[in-house]
Backbone:
């Protein structure tokens, strides 16, 4: 456990039931793959530090949400305080891909007046033989919504690290440029504690935050 | 046990295990623990010990009130008014009085952000009832007369071990500050109220301020303060290892607590609006039902239970599993039981084979700091490890307990159709709370026994703060768990209301 981090970002992980949200997060935070896992109840919490540049660490608080419809009223409450999100679908499950834009609509309504930086994640890419969604169409959809697209596998640990760190880096850039600012009453980004290094001007505390979806 | 090596004195002494080192075996009885901790009790400021963050309302003072239910009825005619919510629960004795009243008071706040405290318009807040004021006065006057009052206080609660410890309380001006063993004293009785202001007016002010924050806010603030403090100091690494709040957060306890508070708050708002929409007989029947449900949340079991023996791992696991199955929800408490049993395993290891443990420790140290090992530092490291592990375990188990309550709330609200009544669920949950808290208190005793035997050579002023800290955090843990339990009340109220309104339709 390392205490010093520059910022804390809250990330939310959403997507249909059984696309592998919890498994992806567990692979990222615990470094292992759980063969069987119970469906998530409501929301679960994880955290990990990510080093985006030598000596610059970001603490990620990751909200794992239940994909099941019946918990939707609980999970909705978490959009508002997230700065970033991973929107997952299962590449072997066409339905979960078709639901992507519903998820985006859902978040749009509940994240007001803020914005979430999303990355689209095609999960279970180890099961390429059962693929029902091509990389091309997924990339197209992602581009239409201004998202990046990445394919991951929690089982084979493919791109898991990259999915989270790329998103973290993107958010960090936006924070550095002042497009995302720390705000009172919003928990998406929090300033952390910096070692005895120069803090530079990254610490922006303006009250305005621009759109970036 | 992979602690940083804290040897400050580079005395070159060969660390040979001498027979006197094997001091871990005999002192399993708390008697010796008491002996060794007693002398310094008055003068020692407890450096590493942090008082439980304050968000207590003046209600916490009414430890003397024995029939809160009756009292609440006398106070507020409407059983759903604030008064009742705050006074109705707290019966089960004088220990572990908690943030509950403020926690349940705050869940009523509409639209309150997690860390965004909005002024509340409720004018009843912070104004203690006449009964409270009188108990405050009682309390205040009781403090000056320490021996007489304190020793007769019932210490039969889970922390009953302290009944054997004589306590000393010094009165300094407007605060009653107790030193050294003070933490032990209030665990037995008033938990966090030991540092009670003699000035009721001051308390009143404080009550007003604190009513607006939830337990998780208070904890978060305390944690953040600690994070800030530790980054500013060199001692960070070791400090963090033993800081309950930081560890509690690391195990996601804070997040689960916040989530539970959110569900509780939403449910409470719903309950209120439902009650507002009803009238006449319908309303009266429902109120009666809700009153019944509330009674199951009074945790009376704490009172009449005697000091219990430590349960075996299987017993505890079985009991929790059994209680959990009575809830009929699709989630199991394995994470908690596993962590709990692992903690007990750890405790028992050094006790059973202290010499082996110690030799390993020394070997480890020899590798670590080559020649700079002296015998004292070996022991020092050893009991500090126990302390760190104890705090860590308490934080972990508390976090997992709260996680369980959070999951329970989510499933009660959004689970499958229920096969059990809300009352049955509350009873199981209430019992679970008792079991969890008792187990924590027993565990803390095991830890301190362990600590005492490992550090028997230490001066009391080194050992005492650590022992105090363990007991203090165990007490805090129990309070948090009870607070979390109380947050389930509105959730079960909703569940009850839903089952009532669904039945005729079906």
Residues:
């Amino acid at each position: 456990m390392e205490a010093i981090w520059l910022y804390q970002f809250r990330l939310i992980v959403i997507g249909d039931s059984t696309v592998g949200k919890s498994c992806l997060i567990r692979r990222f935070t615990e470094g292992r793959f759980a063969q069987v896992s119970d469906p998530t109840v409501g929301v679960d919490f994880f955290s990990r530090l990510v080093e985006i540049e030598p000596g610059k660490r970001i603490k990620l608080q990751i909200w794992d949400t239940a994909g099941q419809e019946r918990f939707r009223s609980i999970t909705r409450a978490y959009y508002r305080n997230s700065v970033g999100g991973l929107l997952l679908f299962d590449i072997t499950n066409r339905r979960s891909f078709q639901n992507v834009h519903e998820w985006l609509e859902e978040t749009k309504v509940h994240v007001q007046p803020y914005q979430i930086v999303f990355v689209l994640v095609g999960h279970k890419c180890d099961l390429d033989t059962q693929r029902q969604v091509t990389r091309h169409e997924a990339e197209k959809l992602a581009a239409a919504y201004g998202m990046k697209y990445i394919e991951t596998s929690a089982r084979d640990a493919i791109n898991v690290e990259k999915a989270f760190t790329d998103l973290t880096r993107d958010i960090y850039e936006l924070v550095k440029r002042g497009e995302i600012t720390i705000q009172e009453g919003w928990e998406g980004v929090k300033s952390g504690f910096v070692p005895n290094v120069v803090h530079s001007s990254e610490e922006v505390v303006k009250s305005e935050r621009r759109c970036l979806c | 046990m992979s602690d940083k090596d804290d040897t400050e004195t580079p005395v070159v002494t060969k660390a040979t295990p001498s027979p006197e080192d094997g001091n871990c075996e005999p002192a399993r009885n708390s008697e010796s623990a008491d002996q060794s901790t007693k002398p310094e009790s008055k003068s020692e400021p407890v450096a590493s010990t942090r008082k439980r963050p304050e968000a207590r309302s003046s209600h916490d003072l009414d430890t003397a009130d024995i029939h809160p239910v009756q009292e609440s009825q006398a106070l507020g005619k409407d059983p759903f008014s604030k008064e009742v919510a705050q006074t109705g629960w707290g019966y089960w004795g004088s220990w572990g009085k908690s943030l509950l009243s403020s926690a349940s008071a705050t869940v009523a706040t509409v639209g309150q952000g997690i860390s965004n405290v909005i002024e509340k318009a409720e004018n009843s807040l912070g104004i203690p009832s006449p009964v409270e004021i009188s108990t405050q006065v009682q309390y205040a006057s009781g403090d000056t007369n320490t021996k007489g009052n304190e020793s007769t206080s019932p210490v039969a609660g889970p922390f009953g071990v302290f009944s054997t410890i004589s306590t000393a309380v010094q009165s300094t001006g407007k605060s009653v500050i107790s030193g050294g063993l003070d933490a032990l004293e209030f665990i037995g009785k008033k938990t966090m109220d030991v540092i009670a202001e003699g000035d009721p007016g001051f308390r009143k002010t404080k009550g007003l301020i604190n009513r607006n924050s939830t337990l998780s806010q208070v904890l978060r603030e305390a944690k953040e303060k600690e994070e800030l403090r530790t980054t500013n100091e060199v001692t960070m690494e070791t400090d963090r290892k033993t800081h309950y709040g930081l560890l509690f957060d690391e195990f996601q306890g804070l997040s689960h607590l916040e989530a539970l508070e959110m569900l509780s708050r939403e449910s409470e708002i719903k309950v209120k609006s439902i009650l507002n929409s009803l009238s006449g007989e319908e309303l009266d029947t429902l109120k009666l039902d809700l009153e019944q449900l509330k009674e199951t949340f009074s945790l009376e079991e704490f009172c009449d239970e005697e000091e219990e023996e430590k349960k075996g791992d299987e017993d505890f696991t079985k009991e929790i599993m059994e209680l959990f199955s009575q809830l009929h929800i699709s989630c199991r408490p394995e994470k908690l039981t596993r962590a709990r049993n692992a903690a007990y395993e750890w405790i028992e290891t050094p006790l059973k084979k202290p010499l082996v443990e110690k030799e390993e420790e020394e070997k480890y140290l020899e590798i670590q700091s080559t020649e700079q090992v002296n015998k004292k530092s070996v022991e020092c490291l050893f009991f500090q490890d126990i302390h760190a592990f104890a705090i860590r375990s308490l934080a972990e188990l508390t976090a997992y307990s709260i996680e369980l309550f959070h999951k329970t709330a989510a499933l009660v609200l959004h689970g499958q159709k229920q096969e059990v009544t809300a009352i049955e669920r509350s009873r199981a949950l209430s019992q679970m709370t008792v079991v969890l808290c008792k187990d924590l208190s027993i565990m803390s005793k095991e830890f301190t026994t362990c600590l005492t035997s490992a550090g028997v050579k230490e001066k009391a002023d080194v050992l005492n703060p650590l022992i105090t800290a363990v007991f203090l955090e165990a007490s805090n843990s129990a309070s948090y768990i009870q607070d979390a339990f109380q947050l389930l009340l509105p959730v079960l109220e909703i569940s009850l209301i839903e089952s009532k309104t669904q039945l005729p339709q079906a």
User: Anything to note?
Assistant: The CA atoms of residues 176 and 200 of chain A lie 10 Å apart.
